Amino acid sequence: MDNLSRFQPAMLSILRIAAGLLILSYGTMKILHFPVGMQPPAGSLPWFAGCFELICGALLVIGLFTRPAAFLLSGVMAVAYFYAHAGNGFFPALNSGSLAMILSFVFLYLAVAGAGPISVDAKLGRGRVAVA
């Protein structure tokens, strides 16, 4: 199993890209109405969340300004959990907040760990790749 640790930097980039694509899809749905249109009223909390999801999700996918984008998205997901889900019960499996909760922690991890080697940040010399 120790041989698998050599893949850690690349897997960090893959985690960032996958999480970025996932959150980007929610942003495109809320703001660009693609592939289906949710239409939160402009200026509402879900609309602002969609703006963050769209912009920061795109930044995560390419790995540019990864740490600040991930930090903002971590906060957006925490707010989403407490605003939209926690009022429906304590347990995430019952209040449908599991995705918001886990994404909040994934984005918090990315804010600390950085973009990984497959990123614009790495090409620009901004992201240090931590090797355990």
Write the layout of secondary structure elements.
Blueprint: H1 8-32, H2 45-62, H3 66-85, H4 92-95, H5 98-113, H6 120-123
Helix pairs in contact: 1-2, 2-3, 3-5
Task: Walk me through the structure.
The structure is a single chain. The chain has one domain. It has 6 helices and no strands. The protein has helices at 8-32, 45-62, 66-85, 92-95, 98-113, 120-123. Helix 1 packs antiparallel against helix 2 and helix 2 (45-62) packs antiparallel against helix 3. It is globular and about 45 Å long. It starts with 7 loop residues before the first helix and ends in a 9-residue tail after the last helix.
Low-confidence stretches: none
Report Rg. 16 Å
The major beta sheet can be summarized as: none
Globular, elongated, flat, extended or rod-shaped: what is the shape?
A: globular
Number of domains: 1
Strand content: under 5%
Helix/strand/pairing class, anyone? mainly alpha
Please report the number of helical segments: 6
